[in-house]
Known about the structure:
- There is one protein chain.
- This protein is mostly helical.
- The protein has one domain: Winged helix-like DNA-binding domain superfamily/Winged helix DNA-binding domain (Arc Repressor Mutant, subunit A), CATH 1.10.10.
- It contains six helices and three strands; from the N terminus they run H-H-E-H-H-E-E-H-H.
- Strands 1-3-2 form a three-stranded antiparallel sheet.
- Helix 2 (28-40) packs across helix 3, helix 2 (28-40) crosses helix 4 and helix 3 crosses helix 4 (57-69).
- The longest helix has 24 residues, at 117-140.
Amino acid sequence: MKYTSVARLFQAHQQFQKRLAERTGLNTTDATLFGALMRAGEPLSAGTLAQIALLTTGATTTAIDRLEALGLVQRRRSDVDRRTVLVAPRQPNARNVMKQMEPLGNLWTSLLGQFNERECEAIERFVRAYTDVIEEALIEA
Length: 141
């Protein structure tokens, strides 16, 4: 079995991320962090964002600083624990950036609609396993 289509998928996705980052004015790290925050759908701590985006805490703090300077996110104290600082999207700027990310999401939804439930479960298992391998490699690197 050849895996050229899998390699091509990841190369194409990297190129898409690069172009999206250029179009939105965000570098790849900032776009990754911003996308993770928006997918979460709720304010998150910097530590949680770092874990989700697979970034170091230092890189996360720097990216949050840049996103805040661009008016895309804001830091605020948690209502539950005032010691905790949460990062939240700042509207409408965040919504404008998300509009530029929508085409890929729409294409992904349309693509998955072409597969039955069993096939989607197999795709999910592959993606989960691949992600686990990459995360493990990042820890060892």
